[in-house]
């Protein structure tokens, strides 16, 4: 084969072109020609696609790059100062090059595997001898998966190769499609997904449903500044969907509240002891250097050996403090020596290795309570923390921002979100002040839920017109200047991670990540590079 064949498709080609590789009948062997013959086979295939939205049981393929995205913002440090930071440093410190992307390289590859698999499934299920209802469900879910992959790809890399049919060995000269075309396909997939899932009952079992499609439509409409559509779809989910806000903010990430009433879609986990079905997120971002002597029980069963990546900044903590927002602060951040919020009796002074932690803080959303730890003989790979991908509060904040740009009561929506965490309503604000407050509420509400980098790249400072990330990062960025003059007792005493975080940001290129150089090389230059890399 010529070098033009993209490495991202090498694996999936084996599944795509049976006629290229299978020259005689293999009796008793399942192939694409004899699979998809039953509803169970179609469901199993679709379940695998859905799982790949997060791969929460795999630490590197998608989880690592998503955490790198967090560390490229004002919300998070790399955090772990005791180990090699090669997976995180290129993105987190804006020294990324096409040849040195750290963990960000793997998301590009993984999503194209999933897109190719979704294309295969959609083609085969369309002619499968199952009922129309079953086809609608599994094809509707698969369309959502494809749309979600492209949503992340276009926000990470901008223009990317776009295809909606399974590819064989002669179909691989894929150029990048403009971001507008990619977004158009995302929207088409989500609308078709919602239509196919229209009659499918909504169950709280982690399955994709029509409301997830409408909610992602609201998000991608917001990201494109399609204010009317963002308002339409977010309003539809709020007013017609079966969801309601959790009364207790901490309950959103509760290990005993999987797929709660606010959750529109979340990646599933399980603590089943004879299978590794748990999320790796609490391990990847758990406190590094816990010791049994720091727990009242003095029992090793209370300890999780966290890796300590993606730690909250004092700047994020200050944002909560500026609003007197104790509930969301303590639900998002635990500072060294403080009680773990909601777990005060069994973990009254959460301590860990400060020598290995840049900020002296950990993310409370990723925390596993002591009682749950004690119930597990196996922890690594068995931690039962579901990961919310889309939840109702985001829809209120989307509707608020869309209302600001069209017409509607943006204040009412942000005050609904504030009321849930016992904050006084905002009154009498409008114009740039109101828009900045909407941005701030998104930060406080959705911290560490995968949206901060995408938000600050797209949001525009209403007083300067610049992207918000340009006002935060770079030599003159407010976040960079804050850190360089900070007196925080934890961050400034552990300088093994540089205090000038974000100083290398360059707005002429860092609004997108580079296309991995290996993909360009394998395409003989058919795939072009993002500007200034």
From TrEMBL:
Keywords: Cell outer membrane, Membrane, Signal. PROSITE patterns: PROKAR_LIPOPROTEIN. InterPro entries: SusD-like_N, SusD_RagB_dom, TPR-like_helical_dom_sf. Residues 94-222 form the SusD-like N-terminal domain. Residues 291-533 form the RagB/SusD domain. It is found in: Cell outer membrane. Belongs to the SusD family. This is Membrane protein. It comes from Flavobacterium limi.
């Amino acid at each position: 084969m010529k070098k033009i064949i993209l490495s991202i498709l090498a694996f999936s080609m084996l599944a795509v072109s049976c006629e290229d590789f299978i020259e005689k009948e293999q009796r008793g062997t399942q192939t694409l020609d004899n699979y998809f013959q039953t509803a169970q086979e179609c469901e199993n295939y679709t379940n695998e696609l859905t799982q790949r939205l997060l791969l929460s049981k795999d630490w590197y393929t998608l989880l690592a790059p998503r955490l790198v995205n967090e560390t490229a913002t004002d919300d998070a440090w790399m955090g772990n100062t005791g180990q090699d930071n090669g997976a995180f440093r290129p993105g987190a410190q804006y020294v990324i090059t096409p040849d040195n992307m750290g963990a960000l390289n793997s998301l590009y590859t993984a999503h194209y595997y999933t897109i190719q698999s979704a294309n295969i499934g959609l083609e085969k299920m369309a002619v499968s001898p199952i009922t129309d209802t079953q086809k609608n469900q599994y094809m509707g879910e698969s369309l959502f998966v494809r749309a979600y992959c492209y949503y992340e790809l276009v926000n990470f890399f901008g223009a990317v190769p776009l295809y909606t049919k399974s590819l064989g060995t002669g179909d691989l000269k894929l150029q990048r499609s403009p971001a507008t075309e990619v977004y158009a396909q995302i929207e088409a997939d989500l609308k078709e997904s919602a239509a196919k899932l229209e009659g499918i009952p909504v169950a709280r079992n982690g399955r994709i449903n029509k409301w997830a499609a409408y909610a992602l439509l609201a998000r991608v409409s917001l990201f494109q500044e399609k204010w009317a559509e963002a308002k339409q779809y977010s309003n539809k989910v709020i007013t017609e969907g079966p969801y309601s806000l959790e009364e207790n903010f901490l309950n959103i990430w509760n290990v005993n509240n999987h797929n709660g009433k606010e959750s529109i879609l979340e990646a599933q986990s399980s603590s089943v002891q004879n299978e590794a079905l748990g999320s790796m997120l609490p391990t990847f971002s758990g406190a590094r250097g816990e010791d049994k002597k720091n727990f009242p029980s003095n029992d090793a069963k209370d300890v999780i050996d966290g890796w300590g990546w993606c730690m909250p900044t004092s700047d994020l903590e200050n944002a909560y403090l500026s609003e007197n927002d104790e509930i969301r602060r303590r639900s998002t951040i635990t500072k060294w020596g403080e009680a773990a919020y909601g777990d005060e009796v069994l973990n009254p002074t959460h301590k860990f290795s400060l020598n290995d932690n840049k900020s002296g803080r950990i993310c409370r959303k990723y925390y596993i309570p002591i009682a749950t730890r004690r119930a597990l003989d196996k922890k690594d790979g068995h931690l039962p923390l579901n990961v919310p991908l889309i939840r109702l509060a985001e829809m209120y904040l989307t509707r608020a921002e869309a209302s600001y740009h069209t017409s509607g009561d943006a204040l009412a929506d942000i005050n609904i979100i504030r009321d849930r965490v016992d904050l006084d309503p905002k009154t009498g604000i409008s114009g740039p002040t109101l828009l900045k407050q909407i941005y701030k509420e998104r930060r406080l509400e959705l911290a560490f839920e995968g949206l901060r980098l995408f938000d600050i790249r797209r949001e525009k400072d209403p007083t300067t017109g610049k992207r918000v990330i340009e006002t935060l990062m770079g030599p003159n960025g407010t976040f960079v200047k804050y850190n360089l003059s900070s007196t925080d007792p934890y961050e400034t005493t552990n300088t093994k991670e540089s205090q000038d975080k974000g100083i290398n940001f360059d707005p002429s290129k860092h609004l997108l990540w580079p296309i991995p150089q290996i993909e360009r090389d394998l395409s003989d230059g058919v795939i072009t590079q993002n500007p200034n890399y």
